[in-house]
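During the reporting period, we have paired protein sequences with C-alpha cells. One record among many follows, to show the layout:
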Amino acid sequence: MQCVRIVTLALLVACPVAAWAKLPAPSPEAKAKAEAAAVRAKWAGKVAAFQLCQAQDKVAAFYYAQAKADGKPTHPPEATPPCVDPGPFVQAAPDQ
C-alpha cells in the first residue's frame, strides 16, 4: 500500500513538469501540411452545408406537396437563399 502512495505521489509531481515542456517549432513541411488540411476541412464544411441545404429543400417540398394533396392549409413557404455548390476541391499550388 505504501508503494502505491509513493508511485502516485511521483506521478503527481512529474505530470506538471511534463506539461511545462515546450514542443519544437513545426517544420515548413508540417506547416504546409497543416494549412492544406485546414483548407480541405473548410471545403468539406461547405460541402456539408450544401448537402444539408439540399436535404432541407427536399423535405420542405415533400411536406408542402403532401399537405396540398391532403387538403391541409399551410402557410406559404418562406423565401430562402439558394443552395450554393462549393464545387470540386482544388488544392492551391504550394508557394516556392
